[in-house]
Amino acid sequence: MKKILIIALVLIGTTTYAQNKNQRASMEVDGVCMMCKKRIEKACLTSKGVKSAVWNVKTHELKLVYDARKTDLQAIRTTIANVGHDTKELKASDEAYAKVHPCCKYRDEEVKDDHRGGDDEH
Fold first, then answer.
1. N or C: fewer beta carbons within 10 Å in the chain?
2. What does the pLDDT read at residue 89?
């Protein structure tokens, strides 16, 4: 009986330990400027468990550090979509996208072309 109890405790401890409090991940998030950067990072940082969020305007890569015991990537993607930005896995609703600033309309080719000139300070 003691052996079974010890094995059960070891398995429970291993499962709990497997969830990383400093999980690292990266994902692609659509956007075009510094206003997008602020919006994306702020949305991530308001998610429970996200410790760090840094989005690169040029590469569209979002680097995250988060507590996997409190959140997961799907929840973070949902938060990003709710503020109007697409990820490869989840597209923002038309309503959420409509709320982003006109200079941040990354789905519009004309807006993307305007930002390709190197003026990312909008």
1. N
2. 96
